[in-house]
């Protein structure tokens, strides 16, 4: 234990990309005294033990939460209700129970009824991730300079919310608090709609008769490949998100459809002015995101560019040329 | 001149991201004896001279092409016709005339009538770029491992096509030949539709009443920020592309709309199976793109992740802690 230690014992239920990143970051930062982890599949539990990112790996959710003063459920949102029901009776009095789900209204609705009144329920959503899944995909820096949104239900003890906020700050995140309803609307546009559109266009491109899959792959650097990254995200997680945040996603889809209809009409009419004005406006949004440090200013996301072929090698390597 | 020199004198008309990257790469590779460049705006001409990426900067298109055995027009596709008309009378007999436009049918239609029969017209499209524009944005490695598509009209001398292919190979590109019509269909799906969708969703997000722009920017790491990169591309270039490739873009938009309607219905009906199956299929496309080297396997496009706060610094830097 160090002076930074906020919790004696953290239980992680689910150790995928997010859970394993929390474990790594919390350990590095000395944020918790010890980490107990569990996962549904024996393979994941075995792998977590091999990786050494938890102090203890147990077989059941009930065993994981016993004696823990921080419990974080890191599983697809559709599974949160049943897991809350399972752990409810075993939670230590005064424990903080949290999650990392991308939808908050459904998580509050599904988990709250199963949690005893002597624990603090503070739902959370770290807005961070990659297109990879599983315990090997996590890394300690995942949350640095990303936002973590807390959505404590009305009546939550403010000191519990503050303690969880301190935990996420220690992991490098910026913390913001809002209502579950507002969270779900904001994330519908900044995350759920983009994923749905990416999943759609990647499917569209794969089903064409007059353009082959090989051509789609080869010429993907024209823009398409950017969409394939998020369309490679975990299918179970995303199925659950769209089912759980149906209303907000449908609302955003409706607005998107109106806007794409307007641009389609401009293309059909050869209305270059409308297109030019729209394309000029959207540049400003990118600049704003880069300015606040939520994306890199490096061209092309900083993707590596290999060197030119047969170019004379720089001094340090020239000897290798034989 | 080196043994690699393919052309004595290359004229570049337009020196933005693509033109300046060609200049840099051709010079580094010794692909051409000398480079003469011109641009419409005096600012760009001055900047190109300052950068030293051309051997000579001239004020008019006519002056640029005189005596050049390779002429590459690197301007928005909507301007290609008028420029062809301007340079036609000044082209050297036997010169190869090419371009870099993202639409090929319209370029062939607009340029061909103005080119004399004693030059070789070999339209080209290097499928490469970044979200930045202008002569400073270019770099010599831009085309390495990217595809360059040549669309020689029927009757083009095969040796001219081969010579231009050799030029692009020397710049690091893979070269493929196809008809202008097929090119425009392929690029409609791998580049034009993705850009249109990105431009749309970024506009949609910016016009919401119930979510602020500040929230959109802050929580953009949930997926939205990926779209803002290509929605920051040059507005003039993209206006011209959509006007020039209207038919193929409308065709692809129709298919995209059918597919998004099907997924919308699945969300509305809570049909998790349909969503899960779709999301599983699209993962394979990403893997294919990474396998053929058209994107990086690094998580999150290899975006940098800053270190954790207050973490002990590694040895080489520890002395700076003071």
TrEMBL record, chains A, B:
Signal peptide (residue range): 1-25
Task: Cite the Prephenate/arogenate dehydrogenase domain residue spans from the record.
Answer: 8-297
A Pfam family? PDH_N
Segments for region (Disordered): 293-322
Q: Quote the biased-composition stretches of kind Pro residues, using this chain's numbering.
A: 306-315
SUPFAM superfamilies per UniProt? 6-phosphogluconate dehydrogenase C-terminal domain-like (SSF48179), NAD(P)-binding Rossmann-fold domains (SSF51735)
Major enzyme class: oxidoreductase
Keywords carried by this UniProt record = Amino-acid biosynthesis, Aromatic amino acid biosynthesis, NAD, Oxidoreductase, Signal, Tyrosine biosynthesis
- Chemical reaction(s) catalysed: prephenate + NAD(+) = 3-(4-hydroxyphenyl)pyruvate + CO2 + NADH
A GO term for molecular function: prephenate dehydrogenase (NAD+) activity
Q: What pathway does the annotation place this protein in?
A: Amino-acid biosynthesis; L-tyrosine biosynthesis; (4-hydroxyphenyl)pyruvate from prephenate (NAD(+) route): step 1/1
GO BP, one annotated term? tyrosine biosynthetic process
- Give the EC number: 1.3.1.12
Q: What is the similarity comment for this entry?
A: Belongs to the prephenate/arogenate dehydrogenase family.
Protein name, as recorded: prephenate dehydrogenase
Organism per entry: Pseudolabrys taiwanensis
